[in-house]
Amino acid sequence: MITCGRLLWGFFCFLLAISLTLAATGCSKVPRYSSVPRYYIWKAERGATLSDLVADPERFHGKVVLLGGTIIEEEAHEQYLWLRLKNRPLDQDYIPHPPANLSGLEAGCYWVMVEKNELPQAYRDWARVTVAARVTETTKFKTEPVLALLYVRGWGISGKSAGVWEHIDPNYVPTLPGGTRYPNAPRYAPRY
Question: C-alpha angle 37/41/42, rounded to 5°?
Fold first, then answer.
């Protein structure tokens, strides 16, 4: 005969197992598989699209956005390489896909700029990209926003030339918790 205590203990174990299963299967807002590091997902403006950037550029100035695209043009300037991208909206896993309406604002273009010789040579073979970039106050052709590239994930057509690039700030000096400095760190580091 089952006592009340054993029945309650079994019910408690059952609820605990269900709770742990739900927590492990993804009740978070960040997908299990993501083509973008969580740092950029957390930092980016939620739900920002190309049409939002074109409609209200002042609202996004200086903010990080996540966009998808395909590289259609490049311009080399003194210090920067400017890439023109045809917009490709991102899905829930931050993977770019063609827009539903090929003539709307979401089918427009935008530019990303990166220092010369920073991207891997395989970037020319990328069929589509996911970018995390900071919105600048510059526009080209009066409607195409210019973004400063922070992170890019590229996919090749066959998957062979896929790649990742991330901007690393050379002035960044990591510190240990509590303000203790690393032994090799410069004595006076710039603060942001």
Answer: 115
